[in-house]
Amino acid sequence: PNDADALAGMHFSAATAAFQIEGARTAAGRGRSIWDDFVDAPGNVIDGSPAEPGPDSFHRFDEDIALLAGLGVDRYRFSISWTRVIPNVGTDASVNPAGLDYYDRLVDGLLAAGITPEPTLYHWDLPVALEASGGWLNRDTVHRFGDYTEVVADRLGDRVRHWYTINEPASTSLQGYALGELAPGQTLLFEALPTVHHQLLAHGIAAPILRENGAVQAAPTLNHSLILPASEAADDQAAAGLLDVIHNRLFTDPLLLGTYPDLSAFGVELPIEDGDMELISAPNEVYGFNYYNPTTVRASEGPLPFEMVPTPGAPVTGFGPMWPIRPDTMRDFLIDMARRYESALPPIIITENGASFPEPDTTDTEISDSDRIDYLRDHLGAVIEAKEAGVRIDGYTVWSLLDNFEWADGWSQRFGLVHVDMRTGTRTPKASFRWYRDLISAARS
Ligand code: GCO
């Protein structure tokens, strides 16, 4: 399929997240997260989906492991639900053994199948009592995250060596706290920016705990997007520069350089205390990099100084004009990042890449998702080109193993290599599953 030589030696994985696949929201003592509140409030999720049962991986994880084994990935990126582990954190610090048991069984099943587990500690499911006292605006949340990390590392650290700490802090801060599109649904605009610092600090506190418990990898995963100005006009260029700071540099600079970019244009000060930047910028073994699409912006009168517009001439995914398909922008972003940060940038793992396309809810036969195959092939092509330009990229991960709960879009956007019937949980591999399996096997031979 692809340039197998160029991909030889890479790690291949597929990704999921707890709230998106587990279902079973009240099973085995699980407590509530901000996503339970978001889903239960009418009008937040496009199709009113309750996020369960869906793939119901809490009960069907054996099927997921069998699919991963059939795919031939050497790693599996999943996330751990904070409120399965400490259900009422914020009011009661008790650990829930039944919640930990689930991840214990999942890890053991993966290891028995020869697959390296690579859990993410935080994929957006903040415990409700922490949100009630300010959530990621409150520095105390960072310390509660440290406590949670201790508990999980203590239980799984004898078998799990590869960890991700926080996932896509940009999405949480911008869509969750600034614009209200995702949980917790706050609309603070630039007043949301302190949530960036606290999430990065949560990584900075968690990573050493994981390493003390045997981790050989403890890194955050960051979602990046190449920002394109809608025109050559100076105000559009300036708007693109501002969004690049907010979406990209606000994360790469502190993690890799130990400093934040100039935020004076946004009129907000970050709540930095002594020692924070050292924790945030402590070197990590890898850089977790999620990429989906570029973002085109023009200048706006407000309330924000930029406004997203469709990317001219690009084909689109199931999300329509705001999810353009431009693999060249992934390549360019990777090359720019490697040039800018030089030796501060560790080897990159592509921790998410993938696309949704309109597909049937139920199916008796294989789905011929050639558009997904094209998307993945072209983005792997971009990875190869970036590698050839000298960027060190050691792994690639498809989002997602399964069709799953796509946040505010409910079940309406399907990203899986495997189709899931959301009423029955029945899993059916798509053509892209076989394509990825063959690619992995060619890269290994
Ligand atoms: C993330 C991602 C995933 C999404 C995927 C498709 O947080 O890592 O947002 O959870 O499902 O990016 O939108």
From TrEMBL:
Keyword Kinase: no
Entry GO MF terms: beta-glucosidase activity
Active site: E168 (proton donor), E352 (nucleophile)
The entry's keywords: Carbohydrate metabolism, Cellulose degradation, Glycosidase, Hydrolase, Polysaccharide degradation
Catalysed reaction, written as an equation: Hydrolysis of terminal, non-reducing beta-D-glucosyl residues with release of beta-D-glucose
Stated family: Belongs to the glycosyl hydrolase 1 family.
Record NCBIfam families: BGL
Protein name: Beta-glucosidase
Organism: Brevibacterium epidermidis
Lineage: Bacteria, Bacillati, Actinomycetota, Actinomycetes, Micrococcales
